[in-house]
Amino acid sequence: MAVLETLVIAFWAMLPAYVPNNAAVLAGGGQPIDGGRTWGDKRVLGDGKTWRGTAMGVAAGLALAAVLTVIAGDVGSALGFDVPAFTPLAALGLAGGAMLGDILASFLKRRTGRQRGAMFPGLDQLDFVVVSLPLVALLDFEWFREWFTLEVILVVVVLTPILHVTTNMAAYKLELKNEPW
Ligand code: CTP
Ligand code: K
Ligand code: MG
């Protein structure tokens, strides 16, 4: 597979997992998922994980997957190679897995004594990949195997932290986010 092709497929296939976190930042607020509950003397998840942010994040990821699926054929023809159309289960695994990964990361942050908004290098950049890819494989293995070749997975692992750092820095500069990570 050509390098450009691998890059485009990796980015396209991950878009429904990339967008939920950003949508959650824009839509966040309201009731925290943990309802304010603590475990020991620390919050279970914290005020940064809300029902509204999570629901809107998943919805944004699913909506984007639907749009990409509609245009995949035309984009593939224009590029000269196929790009993924998303099955409903693949879309759910990517969008839902991304939000779940982010929530699990907050759970780990609280357990390790980090306050809301504190950074956790590595986890912050890859939490959604670590959960969304296995979830997609679980929900629709056929689809996963077709698109997530070893090369694509390698590109995702390298590309995701770079994209994460740049988008969060931009969101911070635009005053959409409280911290640049
Ligand atoms: N957000 C949300 N629900 C989610 C994820 C994010 O409402 N499931 C919103 C919250 O307003 C949150 C903001 O997006 O403050 C930024 O997300 P994130 O950086 O993941 O949360 P933090 O506030 O940094 O909290 P944590 O330390 O738990 O990651
Ligand atoms: K996060
Ligand atoms: Mg944060």
UniProtKB/TrEMBL annotation:
InterPro entries: CarS, CarS_archaea. Its cofactor is Mg(2+). It comes from the Archaea. Pathway: Membrane lipid metabolism; glycerophospholipid metabolism. It is a multi-pass membrane protein. Its main location: membrane. GO terms for biological process: glycerophospholipid biosynthetic process. One of its GO terms (molecular function) is CDP-2,3-bis-(O-geranylgeranyl)-sn-glycerol synthase activity. It is found in: Cell membrane. The keyword Lipid metabolism applies. The keyword Transmembrane helix applies. Pfam families: CarS-like. The chain crosses the membrane at residues 53-73, 85-108, 147-167. Keywords: Cell membrane, Lipid biosynthesis, Lipid metabolism, Magnesium, Membrane, Nucleotidyltransferase, Phospholipid biosynthesis, Phospholipid metabolism, Transferase, Transmembrane, Transmembrane helix. Its EC number is 2.7.7.67. GO terms for cellular component: plasma membrane. It catalyses: 2,3-bis-O-(geranylgeranyl)-sn-glycerol 1-phosphate + CTP + H(+) = CDP-2,3-bis-O-(geranylgeranyl)-sn-glycerol + diphosphate. Belongs to the CDP-archaeol synthase family. Catalyzes the formation of CDP-2,3-bis-(O-geranylgeranyl)-sn-glycerol (CDP-archaeol) from 2,3-bis-(O-geranylgeranyl)-sn-glycerol 1-phosphate (DGGGP) and CTP. This reaction is the third ether-bond-formation step in the biosynthesis of archaeal membrane lipids. PANTHER family: CDP-ARCHAEOL SYNTHASE (PTHR39650:SF1). This is CDP-archaeol synthase. The gene is carS.
